[in-house]
Every structure is written in structure tokens, then in C-alpha cells.
Amino acid sequence: MDKLLDIENLWVKFPTRQGVFDAVRGVSFTLGRERLGIVGESGSGKSMTGRAILRLIRPPGIVDADHISLEGVDLLKKSEKEMRAVRGQRISMVMQDPKFSLNPVMTIGNQIIEAYRLHSKTSKSAAYAKSLEMLEAVSIRDPERVMRAYPHEMSGGMGQRIMIAMMLIPNPEILIADEPTSALDVSVQRQVLDIMDKLVKERGMGLIFISHDLNLVADFCDRVLIMYAGRIVEVCRADKLHEAKHPYTQGLLNSLPRLDAPKDRLDVLKRDPVWSEAPSVSGRT
After folding, report:
1. DSSP 211-273
2. CATH number at residue 33
3. CA proximity to 254, closest of 211, 215, 210, 217
4. What would you measure as the largest C-alpha separation in the chain, in angstroms?
5. pLDDT score for 257
6. What is the pLDDT of residue 98?
7. In this structure, what DSSP letter does residue 84 have?
8. Residues whose CB is less than 8 angstroms from the CB of residue 14 and which lie 6 or more positions away in sequence, other chains included
9. What pLDDT was estimated at residue 283?
């Protein structure tokens, strides 16, 4: 497996009045040309890990690691100017809610064209044609009408597809998707996942899929990292997720409603303080 990304001992810290809060604690993992899921409850450090990779944690937040290597080059040693060439062009990130990611006063077409021309020295007409092609690739009908529209005219599912098109148009090597389907209904969710799966396979990309939906990740991803209190507590193959050994992962699975095993009352997750104190498990291969 080609190693696209290698992260060793990643920490994300925020100073507070009560002392330093560790949002991500000693996380290590690698990403190849695969679909890697990161799951856990809200506040477990999933999104912070994704943002830290792109160095999107702003002061007073602190990102520290032995290395965050993109194909052997440590991103922590790059200047902010050099990182702007990495963001979007080599690593793209689809944020959770397109309503807050798209500019409300620019047409969708102008935003996609801008994203493409930022990393590709091409004419506006060529960028327009490429944008239409990308919207068609994410199954948007009548892309010319969508190019003229504004974000508020789009549904949640359309907005999410537009964001995926915008992030993939520079042809990045890695896509970080932060709960890209959480605001979508089940039918649209499946369409968006199929689109991402197809594009990742066709382009040979690496995908980091951040979610709190264990069943979705088990069905969609190749490998899964389970995070609790800023640490990785377990790593497993996605198709073996329901055979997980860690009590936290088992607790999350048991708290989910199941059609094949209905219960009068769902289990409540019983937390053990030891989980947050144990060393982070390595997700490196």
C-alpha cells in the first residue's frame, strides 16, 4: 500500500483559564490509497485531527507532532505560504455543513472556477468547462443552471455535492471528509457516498472519512480508527468493526438501535476513566 500520509504523535492543545486542554493526544496513523474512517462521539478529537493535518488550527491553538508527512515531506516544516499550495491542490477537506463553507454572495460557478484557477494556470473558459464536467461527475443535473445559482438556492444534498466537486476539481491526492453526510437524508446520503467512492477509486486517492455513524463507516470504509477523549483506543478493519474488542467501541455499538435485534431499552455507555489515560493506540501500518 502506497503511504500518502504518515502522522506520528500528534497533539492539539488549547490554553484555557483552567490550564491547557488537550483536544488530540498522541495520535499516530498512516493513510494509503484507501478509505480510512475516524469515528467517535462529539468532542473525541475527530475534526481537530483533520484540521491539524492541514494546519487549520489557529492561535492560541497549538499543533505539535513528531511529524505530519505527506509523501515523505513534513508539513509542520512548511511556511504558511507553502501550505497554501498544499491545501486544496494536494489535500482537500469537505467541511460538515456546506451552508457555512460556500460564499453566500458569489455564484456557485464563480466559486468553483476560483478554486480551480487558484491551483491551475488556465483560462476562465477552460475553468468553466472543467467546472461543468466536475458538477456532472457528482451527479448534478443541469449543471449550467447550478453554475449561475447562489448557495441559498440549493438543498443540503446539492450543497454537499457542490462542495465535493469544488474540493476535488484540483485533483488532490487526499480528501478529508468531515461528516459529509450528517445533514442529509438516507437516499441522498447513499448517492453522495457512491459519488465519493467512485471518485476515490478512479483517481487512486486517499480518503479520511470522519463520522459518528459506526454502521455507515463499517459499510463504506476499509479501515477504522476509534477515538475517545482525543486518543485512538482501537484500530480495526471496517468489515470487522462489529467484532471490536475495546469496551468503548462495544459500548457505542450496543447503544445503537438495530432492526434485527430490537430492545425495549438501549444500553447506556458506561465510561471507564482508564480509557482516557491509556496510551493512544497506533493506527500506522
Report:
1. ES-HHHHHHH-SEEEEEETTEEEEEEEGGGGGG--SHHHHHHHHTS--SSS--SSPPPPPP-H
2. 3.40.50.300
3. 215
4. 62
5. 74
6. 66
7. H
8. 20, 21, 23, 60, 61, 62
9. 87
Integer Cα distance of 5 and 13 in angstroms: 22
Residue 39 CB-density burial (10 A; 0-12 exposed, 13-18 middle, 19+ buried): buried
In whole angstroms, what is the distance from residue 156 CA to residue 251 CA? 31
Given a cut of 50, the residues of the chain with pLDDT beneath it are none
- What is the rounded CA–CA span in Å between residue 102 and residue 130? 19
- The tally of domains found in the chain comes to 1
Fill in the amino acid letter for 247. P
Asked whether residue 217 is assigned to any structural domain, the reply reads yes
* Dist. CA 61–CA 155, nearest whole Å: 34
Asked if 154 and 185 touch (Cβ cutoff 8 Å), the reply is no
- Residue-level pLDDT at 160: 82
- Other Cβ atoms less than 10 A from the Cβ of 18: the count is 6
pLDDT at 150: 94
* In a domain? residue 119: no
120 domain-assigned: no
State the number of CA atoms in the 13 A half-sphere of 95 facing the CB.
11
Q: Go through the chain and tell me how many residues it has.
A: 285
Residue 105 lies in a domain: no
Place of cell 456546506: 98
Task: Quote the pLDDT of residue 1.
Answer: 55
> Using the 8-state DSSP alphabet, how is residue 140 labeled?
-
CA distances for 66 relative to 6, 28, 130, 139, 192, angstroms: 10, 10, 39, 41, 35
DSSP-based three-state secondary structure for 278: coil
Domain assignment of residue 49, given as a range: 1-83+176-181+208-285
Instruction: Decide: 18 and 187 in contact? Cβ < 8 Å.
Output: no
